[in-house]
Amino acid sequence: MSNRRKQRTTAIISLYITISTVYLNSRDVFALGVNWGTMATHQLPPKTVVQMLKDNNVKKVKLFDADTNTMVALAGSGIEVMVAIPNDQLKAMGSYNRAKDWVRRNITRFNDDVKIKYVAVGNEPFLTAYNGSFINLTYPALFHIQKALNEAGVGDFIKATVPLNADVYNSPPENPVPSAGSFRQDIYEEMKLIVNFLAHNKAPFTVNIYPFLSLYLSSDFPFDYAFFNGQNTVSDNGVIYTNVFDANFDTLLASLRALGHGDMTVIVGEVGWPTDGDKNANIPNAERFYSGLLPKLAGNKGTPMRPGYIEVYLFGFIDEDAKSIAPGNFERHWGIFKYDGQPKFPADLSGEGQKKMLNGAQSVQYLQNQWCMLNPNAHTFSNSTNQLGDNVNYACTFSDCTALGYGTSCGNLDEVGNASYAFNMYFQVHDQKAEACDFEGLAIITTHNISREQCNFPIQLLSSSSSSLSLHLQLFPIFIIKSLKPKPEAFLSLIISIRLAKEGIPKEQSFLTLCME
Question: Considering 80, 151, 189, 270, which one is annotated as catalytic?
């Protein structure tokens, strides 16, 4: 072969390798992650969820614990995993021996079969709502877990990180632009310790960014700025920001830069949009949000301060009907899939912008096709004792009524509809036991689907002892229920009627009052 032909062949091979490497790297780079939460009264089997991840080409998953059943299901899947240490275990991780034991039981035991990449130490432990409960516990736990990983011989490829809420940094009121970002003064020293430690160990900073919350927390927030195709802009010394996600991310970068680590790798541990539980939490808004976010990520557009790839985990994968609603009723509706693993709206996780439904769970097993509803013949209840109100309050306290209320999917129900919805949710949570649909004779079981327009009255999944959160409570006789007399402010049903908004009734006023009219 002539030298010229050899050179040409070599050049072609080199070009092919270069193109292939770029192509493969671009595919690897956009390996989208999702959060898999398990705070549900009836969970899909872990193997079913892992198959959903595969069917939708999800390459990474972030967990909120290191549950054995979940880890076993992920074994051999090739899916990259971030396991987690919950906040209530941070104090225990202050002991190095406890940290070593945790790593042995949850990391090295699975390391040959599960592709573990990160350990999340806590979950948003510096939230202002926690009143400093975990401030002094987080860094020692982080230090000990990474040290234990190193000692176990896996610290070079498994890194400890701390998922933090975006409230750990801000810009001053007098200069509210990303480039002026800095960490909160009340946690500044702790953040400095954590950031320096992450940098020393070549571990990423993990942040949770929620444009939805910007809308939820401020009525003055420009609506379109929460999305990626709006007209609102913010100028930062000539740099134009068209959405709050970019502005928030760059505020963090400025905060890291102020500590001398402006080049630190940053992971977005959670970002998403809920579909119920608030006037802005609905499917059209969620679809709009994701139709802007996913192509942005696939195109590796980055932000003004950091163009290029950003590692992102969507929140969340599946709805969780047992999550705390302290932040808001929307907390149980973050999933891109419903509780039963069925997709809510078109979403193209490849980022190519195709309007197609995701691949849902297969072979899902449900309870019987039956519902619990307000007995149409039970209109003799006494308003003086507020019999209906007591029962509705009880049903909503021990089930999920977050789809009821102003601007929600079931917000247009009347009092009869509200009562039927509450009774049915309680009935389903308790596996359709006959005694769970009595309520002093106010309720009856029906085989007729009582769903209304946009309001779905769901049928729960068939329980599995290995995959359901044990929140099922003993079914008390109604006289015991009345004797318990839970405080009215504990009731979720205080806000379940749309009439509160329609008639200008304060949210604090109970649904009980409405039933007495």
Answer: 270
